[in-house]
Write a structure and sequence with these properties.
Nucleotidyltransferase, domain 5; alpha/beta; 7 helices; 41% helix; globular; six-stranded mixed β-sheet; single chain
Length: 209
């Protein structure tokens, strides 16, 4: 495994093929307050590319072109948050996409545990460390532990996608999964506009007073 750290953008000429695993690290989990700090990518070849953002400009044309490329599927785990952050700070809509958390929810109905660590342990016999999950991602210099943690979030998504495609087909739920994936950019926009905790599809929904 190799981890490549890039400042502010991907270099020219990197080819991730027709599917790229994507994850983000931010200053926190607020779509209003916290900024995008890092974008992680992998072609599923055991290597990871980490793009450290310039949080003043977000001038990263190569990264934006990749994420917006309609011929490259973007693989996320819990795409709802990442897509919202990438929409807000980079101004890109990451379609088409595949979300392993949604696929897990549609196929692993025997459990309510759908975190990436759980999936990697159960389906791949890989034990991920989440020690750096709460970390200062806005720092100018990432530690080796931070780099390894960030890379681990994208290194296994291609394998999980292959497993879940098989399970979605087995359960005849591929069509509903695709519909969920296609709705995610809209769900992300609703989150960014303040409807993240409100079920607008409910017969009677209430907002906080």
């Amino acid at each position: 495994m190799a981890i490549y750290l890039h400042k502010h953008d991907l270099p020219d000429g990197i080819d991730f093929g027709d599917a790229v695993a994507v994850d983000t690290e931010t200053q926190g989990l607020s779509l209003v307050r916290d900024k995008l700090c890092l974008v992680q990518l992998s072609a599923g070849d055991g290597d990871a590319h980490l793009v450290q953002m310039d949080r003043d400009k977000y001038d990263c044309p190569n990264l934006k072109a990749l994420l917006a490329n309609p011929d490259v599927e973007k693989i996320f785990h819990f795409a709802r948050f990442d897509v919202a952050m990438l929409q807000r700070d980079l101004g890109v809509e990451c379609m088409p996409l595949f979300c392993t958390k949604i696929a897990s929810g549609l196929t692993r109905t025997y459990t309510d545990a759908h975190g990436l660590k759980v999936l990697c342990r159960e389906l791949l016999s890989v034990d991920l460390s989440k020690q750096q999950q709460s970390s200062d991602w806005a720092t100018d210099t990432l530690s080796e532990a931070q780099k390894e943690y960030a890379a681990s979030d994208v290194l296994y998504l291609h394998q999980l996608r292959r497993i879940f495609i098989g399970r979605l087909l087995r359960e005849d739920r591929m069509d509903i999964a695709k519909a969920c994936f296609e709705f995610l950019p809209t769900r992300a926009r609703l989150d960014a506009l303040g409807w993240n905790d409100v079920d607008i599809f409910s017969h009677s929904f209430r907002t906080k007073d």
